[in-house]
Amino acid sequence: MPIEVAPEGWQRLHPLSPVVRSSRTLAAIAVLAVVDAAQARHGNPLNLAVYGAVIVFGLVAGVIAWLVTRWRLESDALHIETGLLRRDSRRLPIDRIQAVDLVRPFLGRILGLAELRIRLAGADGSRGRLSYLTEADARQLRARLLAAHHGLDQATPPPPERMLLSVPSGRLLASVATSFLGSSAGVLAVVALVLSITVPSALAVVFGSSFSLLFALGGGIWRRVTSEYRFTAAAAPDGLRLRAGLFQTVAETIPAGRIQAVRMVEPLLWRPFGWRRVIVDVAGGTANRRGRTSGGGQVSRALLPVGRAADAELVLDRVLGDHRVELTRPPRRARLKAPLGYHFLASGYDQRHAVTVNGRLQRTTCWVPLEKVQSVRRLQGPVQRRLRVSSVHLDTAGRSVRAVLRDRDQSEADAAVEQLAELSRAARALPTDRAIPPARPPVGSVQ
Amino acid sequence: MRVWEALVVGVVLALLIGGGVMVASIGAGLAVLVGILALSVASLWFLRRRFRAWRYLERAEDLVVVRGVMLRRLSVVPYGRMQYVDVTAGPVERLFGLATVKLHTAAAASDARVPGLEPAEAARLRDQLARLGEAKAAGL
Q1: Chain A contact for B81 (CB, 8 A cutoff)
Q2: Is A386 in the B-facing interface, judged by CB distances under 8 Å?
Q3: Which of A41, A210, A332, A417 has the most neighbouring CB atoms within 10 Å?
Q4: Which of A109, A132, A158 is the last residue of a domain?
């Protein structure tokens, strides 16, 4: 079914959309109903009627939402209209599109449906989603939107991608098991087991007290495994294409030139394997994955859930370009202030990036492109003053990345504040070669 | 002007609590009154130092704010990175005819706040910052 571009070309979403959209809620209600019925034993007809009514109501609401939603592709925008009582008509200008993500929930994959999420530059809420289209339609629409975004004819096939890396499932599972979440869950489970064997009477207490904690840890582990299962990264002209998921699969693009900061994390238990995790912060309100551990409004994505040094170099090269910066260590007297952290402490900067290394148990290396620096701060606490050292913080949009040139010599820090302010201004003024390169006529396509 | 804020709060607290305790026992009430007054004088000294250490400098390309006595902070915020400028005046600040100017960037951690300004100076600073911000604006 080709997608037409016509003035009257309003299209509906796929008729099965309400079912897919409400599948999770319906499943939850069904479980509740079964539990309730089992408890009441003979089945309370009133309760069953209430559950039935809720399910029917949900389905009817879904069908109405489907009936009143329509979309069409115009030459310069994607137009989505929805809402029964409060009409919401949204035009998404194609030239402001940041990325188009393809999300396929579990039921959607069975039925061959996919959701398209369109992210725009700008504040939260400035995004559109089309849930659901058939998969072929969704891919085609994405290709059209991206082609039009790069100023090409909408019928241009999607540009070729080059596969960078994939994460083997075994390595992902092992890495989650040795991560902080996994290892603390393991320790907790072992303690509970030992306690319950040695002191059988305490079983109920131990189980009761650790249950909620285990449940939360298990939830975190589950989310991590299901969302990063079969992770692949591919390089496309407009950025990095990431695909992952066990039940629900997500294909998203990290647009080039929108990266605020990159972090590389090496937890203690991963070090024997030489594994590391690379995370990026991207600008723009794109908090579109509900239930992400990173919290509301946070836009950080794993570029590499777990990988060796060579894999990390590969993605870092891709998103940062030449990112090797000579690092220097803080003066030895800083050891008094940071006896543990001093071990890995290092930092440095050049014309384009500032790089900091912090952390002892979890060594964290942080790259900040200087043109993304929002402000520079120098902090000096009482102990630091006595030791004649101070820390220089680089602030970028977002909250999670902290690039701190920690415990530098005082005069060095003073110079760094001046130079970093100056260098970041120079970097901002330059036309950056990290921006999206002009699209070249594509040759073939890799889906 | 935090100094007056602290003094007013201290005296009012001392009178209220001291007076309350005095109803029960005059000696204890007096002790509480003196204690709270001493505390407010001490905090007055701290706040005075804190306030004195607060300086700002408008440079050609950025605003520099220095503050803190124990923890010394220096922030450099380029005008081009500014998203908006806030001028606020709390009830006590209004009582003394003062205002606070705050600079916001896209980073949550940026910390450029100048409190205790005369309204005229606050308005001048705000307009100046807004003008420079517009002239040098840079995208994310």
Answers
A1: yes
A2: no
A3: A417
A4: A158
What tokens were used for B75? 């922030």
8 Å CB contact of B77 and A374: yes
pLDDT at A212: 80
Q: How confident is the model at residue A290 (pLDDT cuts 50, 70, 90)?
A: very low
Q: Are A117 and A173 within one domain?
A: no
Q: Is the CB of B74 inside 8 Å of chain A's CB atoms?
A: yes
Contacts for A135 with CB less than 8 Å, ≥ 6 apart = A104, A112, A113, A114
Residue A234 belongs to a domain: no
* Domain containing residue A320: 254-429
Mean pLDDT across the stretch B113-127? Answer: 89
- pLDDT tens profile A347-386: 999 988 999 999 888 999 999 999 888 899 999 999 999 9
Ordered DSSP codes for A348-397: EE-SSEEEEEE-SSEEEEEEEEGGG--EEEEEE-HHHHHTTEEEEEEE-S
Alpha carbon distance A297, A393 (integer Å):
22
- Among chain B residues, the shortest Cα distance to A416 is held by B76
Interface check A425 vs B, CB under 8 A: yes
Selecting from A375, A380, A382 the residue whose C-beta is nearest the C-beta of B76 gives A375
Is the pLDDT at A436 greater than 60? The verdict is: no
Q: What is the pLDDT of residue A294?
A: 32
Instruction: Verify whether the Cβ–Cβ distance B140 to A377 is below 8 Å.
Output: no
- The 8-class DSSP code of residue A328 comes to B
Beta strand A375-380 with B72-78 is antiparallel
> Residue B109: closest CA among chain A residues belongs to which residue?
A395
How high is the pLDDT of residue A89? 84
**Residue B80 Cα, gap to closest chain A Cα (Å):** 9
Domain total for chain A? 3
What type of residue is A126? S
